[in-house]
Amino acid sequence: MPATTSPLIIALDYPDMAAALAMADQLDPTRCRVKVGKELFTRVGPDILKALHQRGFEVFLDLKFHDIPNTTAQAVLAAAEHGVWMTNVHAGGGARMMEAAASALATRQLETRLIAVTVLTSMEQSDLAGIGLDVTPLAQVERLASLAQQSGMHGVVCSARETPSLKALCGPDFLKVTPGIRPSFAQAGDQRRTMTPGEAMAAGSTHLVIGRPVTQAENPMAALAAIETELGGRA
Ligand SMILES: O=c1ccn([C@@H]2O[C@H](COP(=O)(O)O)[C@@H](O)[C@H]2O)c(=O)[nH]1
């Protein structure tokens, strides 16, 4: 049985274990999952995963691996061996990289969900042009999501703006994990392709990643409760 069926994933973007656990200890593992990203994992290491697992949380280890196929596959394996619920790679690493990572997990019969980042939610069309991609974010997300699905990924990270197209392109069971979630009370900050929690669920997101709108709110639990209410009660 999963710890939760909630679509909510709270991003624990903190500089140390104490701050991350102070937040986690206010959360309920039956009402959300948590995400450990580059800042927290690089500062604290695998001990943070152990501490969150001991508290009953399912953890998304968001390290966005992007390297040659062998290195990426071994890194994904190492993540899965920590018992995380989900981890990820950059789809831009290409089909052979994603296939190597998926096959490393399959060979070891590890059940960690492996998803691929398409286009970061902080990027808009001008950012893509800046790296030589003369396409819309939607076209690039569609292209990378198809490649990710063909390469054995369980889903993708994209913005909620692209989920209706991806539902049609990749089917309803393909995971659509969407950061860039901004409730009406929150600032967009560095995010560009945003949606509110309610809009994102209606658009077909399977999971919503939410960081600062909760973790940097004056009252984080009130912010989370407001999001749950927007989603129709306890998510
Ligand atoms: O495209 C992406 C991929 C990952 N993220 C991560 O999600 C959270 C979002 O945090 P907010 O504070 O709600 O903006 C953060 O950990 C990012 O590293 C993303 O935003 N976009």
UniProtKB/TrEMBL annotation:
<feature type="active site" description="Proton donor">
    <location>
        <position position="64"/>
    </location>
</feature>
<feature type="binding site">
    <location>
        <position position="212"/>
    </location>
    <ligand>
        <name>substrate</name>
    </ligand>
</feature>
<comment type="pathway">
    <text>Pyrimidine metabolism; UMP biosynthesis via de novo pathway; UMP from orotate: step 2/2.</text>
</comment>
<dbReference type="InterPro" id="IPR047596">
    <property type="entry name" value="OMPdecase_bac"/>
</dbReference>
<feature type="domain" description="Orotidine 5'-phosphate decarboxylase">
    <location>
        <begin position="7"/>
        <end position="227"/>
    </location>
</feature>
<feature type="binding site">
    <location>
        <position position="211"/>
    </location>
    <ligand>
        <name>substrate</name>
    </ligand>
</feature>
<dbReference type="Pfam" id="PF00215">
    <property type="entry name" value="OMPdecase"/>
</dbReference>
<dbReference type="GO" id="GO:0004590">
    <property type="term" value="F:orotidine-5'-phosphate decarboxylase activity"/>
</dbReference>
<keyword id="KW-0456">Lyase</keyword>
<dbReference type="InterPro" id="IPR013785">
    <property type="entry name" value="Aldolase_TIM"/>
</dbReference>
<dbReference type="InterPro" id="IPR011060">
    <property type="entry name" value="RibuloseP-bd_barrel"/>
</dbReference>
<comment type="similarity">
    <text>Belongs to the OMP decarboxylase family. Type 1 subfamily.</text>
</comment>
<comment type="function">
    <text>Catalyzes the decarboxylation of orotidine 5'-monophosphate (OMP) to uridine 5'-monophosphate (UMP).</text>
</comment>
<dbReference type="InterPro" id="IPR014732">
    <property type="entry name" value="OMPdecase"/>
</dbReference>
<comment type="subunit">
    <text>Homodimer.</text>
</comment>
<feature type="binding site">
    <location>
        <position position="35"/>
    </location>
    <ligand>
        <name>substrate</name>
    </ligand>
</feature>
<keyword id="KW-0210">Decarboxylase</keyword>
<feature type="binding site">
    <location>
        <position position="121"/>
    </location>
    <ligand>
        <name>substrate</name>
    </ligand>
</feature>
<keyword id="KW-0665">Pyrimidine biosynthesis</keyword>
<feature type="binding site">
    <location>
        <position position="182"/>
    </location>
    <ligand>
        <name>substrate</name>
    </ligand>
</feature>
<feature type="binding site">
    <location>
        <position position="13"/>
    </location>
    <ligand>
        <name>substrate</name>
    </ligand>
</feature>
<feature type="binding site">
    <location>
        <begin position="62"/>
        <end position="71"/>
    </location>
    <ligand>
        <name>substrate</name>
    </ligand>
</feature>
<dbReference type="InterPro" id="IPR018089">
    <property type="entry name" value="OMPdecase_AS"/>
</dbReference>
<feature type="binding site">
    <location>
        <position position="191"/>
    </location>
    <ligand>
        <name>substrate</name>
    </ligand>
</feature>
<protein>
    <recommendedName>
        <fullName>Orotidine 5'-phosphate decarboxylase</fullName>
        <ecNumber>4.1.1.23</ecNumber>
    </recommendedName>
</protein>
<dbReference type="InterPro" id="IPR001754">
    <property type="entry name" value="OMPdeCOase_dom"/>
</dbReference>
